[in-house]
Automatic annotation (TrEMBL):
Location in the cell: Membrane
One annotated GO biological process: BMP signaling pathway
Taxonomic superkingdom: Eukaryota
InterPro entries: Kinase-like_dom_sf, Prot_kinase_dom, Protein_kinase_ATP_BS, Ser-Thr/Tyr_kinase_cat_dom, Snake_toxin-like_sf, TGFB_receptor
Keyword tags: ATP-binding, Kinase, Magnesium, Membrane, Metal-binding, Nucleotide-binding, Receptor, Serine/threonine-protein kinase, Signal, Transferase, Transmembrane, Transmembrane helix
Protein kinase domain: residues covered: 191-490
Binding site for ATP: 218
Assigned EC number: 2.7.11.30
Protein name: receptor protein serine/threonine kinase
Positions with biased composition (Acidic residues): 107-122
GO MF terms, alphabetically ordered: ATP binding; transforming growth factor beta receptor activity
Amino acid sequence: GEWIFIVCTCSRASVPKRRCVYHVSPRNHQYTQAGRVSGSVQVCETTSCCVGFFWMMDGQQKVDLQACDMYEQSCPDKSCTSHPHFNKIIKCVCNTDFCNSNMSWSSEEEEEEEEEEEEEEAVGSPDVTMRTTIAVLPMVLLFLMVCFWTAAKRGRSFYQHTKENPYCDVSVNPQCSCQEPNPSTIDHALIELQQVVGRGNFATVFQGTYKGFAVAVKCFPGGQEEKFRAEKEVYELPLMKNAGIVLFLGSGTKPHDTSFFIVMQFAEHGSLHSFLSQHSISWTSAFNMCLSLSQGLSYLHSDLQLNGVHKPSVAHRDLSSSNVLLRADFSCVLCDFEDSAVLCSCVGRQWGRSHTHNVQGGPAVGTLRYMSPELLEGEVNLTSSSFMFQGDVYALALILWEVWMRCSHLFQDADVPQHLLPFELELGPNASRERLIHHVCSMNQRPSIPPPWDLLPEGCDVKRILTDCWDSDADARLTASCVVNCLMSLQSNT
Ligand SMILES: Nc1ncnc2c1ncn2[C@@H]1O[C@H](COP(=O)(O)OP(=O)(O)OP(=O)(O)O)[C@@H](O)[C@H]1O
């Protein structure tokens, strides 16, 4: 066996909480959860970063959103400095109190002028220029060849992550996991179980009450202790309280039959799958569902360090519309973390603390029809964690497709088709792995995009997001945080 030593030093000194300017419209209500709001000030609960979204109108800077950040993994800048433009919206994150009050950037003309000045300085007299050109030409050619080779190796992901989506943070945060379990045991006698609301492969979920609150209780039979522990371990990670993740209240063991249970907040509208089966939705509802879902996944994937507490990245690995829940305000939350992998980036390998039994050996986990081509074929590199995030993003795309396929706005005057699972139309409700491999891998097929979408600007935008997320080249897929940024920019354009 191989031994992995993890040395963690955690400083627990209390750090004053970050204060940010707060200006949030109702459509971005999820930011209210990033900290305590008092007038135009927000005291951040889970971050030391302030965020600002701005856009330009008639040469004037307009505020779109100011709040404590909920999604960025780091914010090295002291002041809010613009990143390159992504469509019309400009985002900045920064790490000092109220630094998001306004944003500084140089206008494109200024940048162009600066570039021109730099060029003029660099260029000497014509003779010198000619001699210099001849001398450096071979070196430039060699350099270009190396660049070309490197870019080709990195494939389209380089282009997509750095050019098309300049806000994508693809850096790895080299932090050590100082994870301390945060156990909260619940006495079974205080729970009152009502009806069954879901039955999965390993557990049964009941609606119930606990201390007067509506809760969902996920009951695992004694034989599923491993699944129970795996899921509980994810919920008990530090900083797992987030608007995009179902609120975990605690867990316990039933005294008589040694079965196990997890208690969560009850999601009033049940699973996204059951909701979409019964309802078509407006553009705004579809948009909010897609945004909250992508934000939840982006948060789950993030590696955060806050006040000496570390939340490691988590890959869900079984995303499907049945494992996304809808709360009373129709925002999405993630649930069902039995197969998730907690990634620790401090051990030289990409993981090492937990769930290794889920990762090494054996077939890939997850729901077949949501599995990415590389997972279906088993062609994944188990020494890298990125395949797990890329697999999640592929599944995210299929769920976003399910949502937008029920959006009345995208079908204009025509009837909205009834809800279908991805590939249900083509392969039926119980597609085998072999048929999926043939369809998704060999034929490179994806859920079909209805032709009317091409006629609508919103349709073209969502089609682009989907195709960028379910690309057969896993490296070329967007990251979850890129999907959030794409959606935010789409929102500012509509
Ligand atoms: N907090 C909740 N609020 C309301 N309904 C819930 C909640 N949690 C789960 N459910 C319902 O129970 C179903 C099954 O939940 P979950 O996926 O966690 O169980 P599972 O046994 O792990 O299923 P799987 O076979 O997908 O692993 C969900 O699809 C949903 O309909």
